[in-house]
Amino acid sequence: MSGEIVKIPNVLPGAVRAQLAYMLTSPITTDQLEVLKRLARDTRMINVWNELIRTDRKTGAFLYPAQHPAEESFANPAEAQAAALRETLHFAYKAAIDRVRVFKPAEIEQKRQELLNNAETFRARAEELAQIGAEEVPYILAAATRYEAAAGEVRKDDDPLTISNDRGDRVERGVQIAIASFLLERFGNRLDGVASTLTSVALGTNKPSARVSRSAFLEAKRR
Fold first, then answer.
1. Per-residue pLDDT for 1 more than 60?
2. 30 and 122 share one domain
3. What is the number of other CB atoms lying within 10 angstroms of the CB of residue 152?
């Protein structure tokens, strides 16, 4: 955890400044702080936020209005957009910290099988212990169920994060595709250029091509 004070530029939208202030006061590691500093200070972020709050000159409506889950309600479109900006900042931060990466189908299947094998091992052990009336049987069966559930949640072939060929850094590709997926869900558009910039800033790398996320979604549709 760092005690460094990070100055948040006033030029950023109020919702973004508030989210940064909140995240910077939370317990974070040095690496996490570096990601937040880049997201706060990199001047390219100004264009990112401006794009997400850009409005139609005639109607004044947001060009990319926030699309929140039905159970979430907001007083007005501006409030909904502000919430989406905060979520975008947090998602980009988490994607970089978690180092989201792409995987090939064979690697994904291997992981799925490992989870299923673990579940089978736990169930077999539960059967053995059940014969002697062991009290821990329900807990072991619960663990087996969790492994099976995890296996069912492993990425599918049509997931954009599933790749056919290695092209470039896997983490950089994964973070960019994940951010583009979030933007599509929250703003109704992948905004590939925005996703590319967010990836570059969050990871501290050279700006990847906007084609990375565009190609990933096209390949996923073909599968």
1. no
2. no
3. 10
